[in-house]
Amino acid sequence: MKYSVNRKSVGVFGAAGLALLLAASLTLTPVVTEADGLRQENTRPDWPMPNFNEHNTRNAPESTIDSSNVNTLGEVWAFEIPGMGNAYGGAASNPLIADGTVYFQDLGSNVFAIDLETGEVQWEHMFDTPVTGPNGPGLNQERVFVGIGQDTVVALDRATGEEVWRTVVDGPTGYSQLAALDNTVYLGTGTRAYTPGVSGFIYALNADDGSVKWQFQTVEEGFWGAPEINSGAGVWYPPALDLERGVGYWGTGNPAPFAGIVGWPNGSSRPGPNLYANSTLALDLEAGELQWYDQPNPHDVFDLDFQSPRILTTATVNGSERTIVVASGKLGRVIANDVETGEQLWDTEVGEHQNDDAAGVNPGETLTV
After folding, report:
1. Cis preceding linkage at 257, omega within 30
2. How far apart are CA 127 and CA 180, in angstroms?
């Protein structure tokens, strides 16, 4: 299949297109930095991981693009996205950039390698499997890794787009962008629209052959007492990876049903805190064993996920330099945890808060949170 690529000096693009904005005077340069006290190596203008690097800093510190000049950027090329998802349009993930190529997956699960300079398609692999997202590729030196729905993960040859292997996992794929580092691919799964008895899983796969190194289920065994009703704790985003300690940090989504169902109001089908929904999870990268967790919103009945990508950084806390994990989500709180113990170091509310202490909703009542 052929796709048109529009090359313009200045332009505007819509939600159905992938565009690259450049200006000749705005540059990215190769650097090796000691950012925030944690070593990060990336060759700019590459963006080789979903959130720039394994720490999820989502920041290219050597870029000269900032708020003072972003309005001078013009469109160089645009690529029309062909695939559509089952809920949220055509695109819901970050493209990856490495060695002059943009790697992108649409919400039809289709994967494209696009020349960074010209916008020309180098190769494509069409799956035509609509997913919910946010999906997206992971990348190492040899392969591109994607979830394609149907509980399946596929590895593609980075140079040609040809399929190398595929693995079926326990849980719906296409809900989370993959992260690949060295010989391991990290994957989170969703909840199949809160189908009873379906939870999130975290997987570590062997990048060479797709075999499962380990898996971690994000709900307690028995689905809090009612697997025929309960579900939740999806994993929507890739982890922050602490290679020095050999630990990864993930966020999880809400428990379900919410607020409840007929006969089981206000989450009464799932009594207790509902571990490990709405949590930060610290897992050993070798075996997937839980090191610690922090659940700031137990027994959530309002769909207040604590899902966003964790950020690994350093900060001065009470006069001492600490390595911390920063977590946030729909809860409207930003929380910092000590990486070693999970201790909450600070907890800051953001946004407008109402009825934070509400335990549920009475029949016929409307409650704003």
Report:
1. yes
2. 21
* Tens digits of residue pLDDT in 245-285: 999 999 999 999 999 899 999 999 999 999 999 999 999 99
- CA distances to 10, 26, 48, 89, 90 from 71, rounded to whole Å, are 11, 12, 25, 26, 26
Is residue 319 packed enough to be buried (19+ CB in 10 Å), middle (13-18) or exposed (0-12)?
exposed
3-state secondary structure of 112: strand
Structure tokens at 157: 């040859």
Task: Encode pLDDT of 198-207 as tens digits.
Answer: 999 999 999 9
CA distance 338 to 259: 32
Instruction: Provide the β-strand partners of residue 144.
Output: 139, 156
At the topology level of CATH, where does 77-308 sit?
Methanol Dehydrogenase; Chain A (2.140.10)
Residue 20: per-residue pLDDT: 57
State how far the Cα of 119 lies from the Cα of 102, in Å rounded to an integer.
9
Q: Mean pLDDT in the chain?
A: 89
Contact 241, 285 (CB under 8 A): yes
Q: How far is residue 219's CA from residue 198's CA, in Å, rounded to a whole number?
A: 9
Cα separation, 179 vs 146, whole angstroms: 9
Who contacts 90 (Cβ-Cβ below 8 Å, separation ≥6)?
Answer: 15, 16, 81, 82, 83, 84, 106, 107, 108
Q: Are 191 and 200 within 8 A, CB to CB?
A: yes
Q: Give the type of residue at 54.
A: E
Q: What is the pLDDT of residues 331-345, one digit of tens each?
A: 999 999 999 999 999
Predicted local distance difference test score (pLDDT) of residue 35? 42
**pLDDT in the model for residue 21:** 52
Handedness of CA 339, 344, 348, 350 (dihedral sign): positive
The H helix count followed by the E strand count for the chain is 0, 27
